[in-house]
Specification:
heterodimer; A: 143 residues; mainly beta; Jelly Rolls; 4-stranded antiparallel β-sheet; 10 strands; 50% strand; flat; B: 141 residues; 5-stranded antiparallel β-sheet; 46% strand; globular
């Protein structure tokens, strides 16, 4: 059984005057309702071109309502570059240059794909890294 | 200007070679090198019903500015969980508005687009009437 852990630390000495912020949390990724670890991963790197269409980073073709986790990082160093992240028609938010995100993805619906789009500077490209840890994965059908 | 640093470390032995991801970021304003300056502060709430509850209202943010949301299920159960979703679709598993599930100990940190619409409120729905505790914090421009 595989073991995958994700740890976060969030710190700030000056966000709240007189109250230094220090959040530390860690968890082990497990299958839905089980203590068994996730055993599938899709990891990679790519580039998005601004002004192109929104692309699906991952289709929801695994098991519906399962435990899956997404790590995504905007690797651009240009402050104007950002990636718009969404689940199907819901826009979650903007991932600025150098920023990362970590979220569960339960694939609640067959249309609940993770989609990304480059924004910020016309014609430019934004490099990104991602890792998707999954409970189950269905390979796309042969064409 | 405040400085908020966030670091993630992901380690896994899923493959035959180890996966080690270590990334740090500074939470900045939209298209800026200047840091976020506002926060909701840490919220901690106990839940004991399966009804979907709004934890972040879209009016707390601004659509054209940067926001991030940290949420953690402070429990340890790998059976009980919170659904996290946009709008009140949190009560349903089969919705594209649902982001995912947070079992005991699970945490998430995501950017949040605070569009001025109920569709961008953040809701949670416990899977059980057994008491569970959630903590969350919003970082804003």
């Amino acid at each position: 059984m595989a073991t995958t852990t994700a740890t976060v630390s969030i710190n700030s000495s000056d966000l709240i005057p007189g109250q230094p912020l220090s959040i530390n949390a860690s968890h082990t990724l497990t299958k839905s309702g089980l203590t068994e670890g996730l055993e599938i991963v899709d990891i990679g790197r790519g580039e998005l071109t601004e002004a192109s269409a929104t692309d699906a980073l991952a289709e929801a073709i695994g098991t519906t309502d399962s435990s899956n986790w997404l790590y995504l990082c905007n690797k651009s160093t240009n402050d104007l570059h950002y990636i718009q992240v969404g689940i199907h028609d819901i826009r979650l938010g903007f991932l600025g240059s150098g920023e990362w995100m970590w979220m569960p993805w339960n694939q609640g619906d067959a249309e609940a794909e993770i989609n990304i789009e480059a924004e910020g500077v016309t014609g430019s490209t934004i490099p990104y890294e991602y890792a998707i840890f999954q409970e189950a994965k269905t390979l796309p059908a042969k064409t | 200007m405040a400085t908020i640093n966030a670091t993630i470390s992901i380690n896994s032995d899923i493959m035959s070679y180890p996966i080690n991801i270590n990334t740090s970021m500074v939470m900045n304003k939209f298209q800026s090198c200047h840091g976020l300056e506002e926060t909701s502060g840490m919220n901690v709430k106990k839940f004991n019903a399966t009804t979907a509850v709004k934890i972040v209202d879209n009016t707390e943010g601004t659509a054209s500015k940067a926001s991030k949301v940290y949420i953690r299920n402070t429990g340890s159960s790998k059976t009980n969980f919170f659904y996290v979703a946009f709008a009140d679709g949190a009560a349903a598993s089969d919705s594209t508005e649902t982001i995912g599930k947070l079992y005991g100990g699970d945490w998430m940190l995501v950017p949040w687009l605070a569009l001025a619409a109920a569709s961008h409120d953040i809701h949670v729905a416990p899977s059980t009437t057994e008491e569970m505790t959630l903590e969350w914090m919003v970082f804003q421009e």
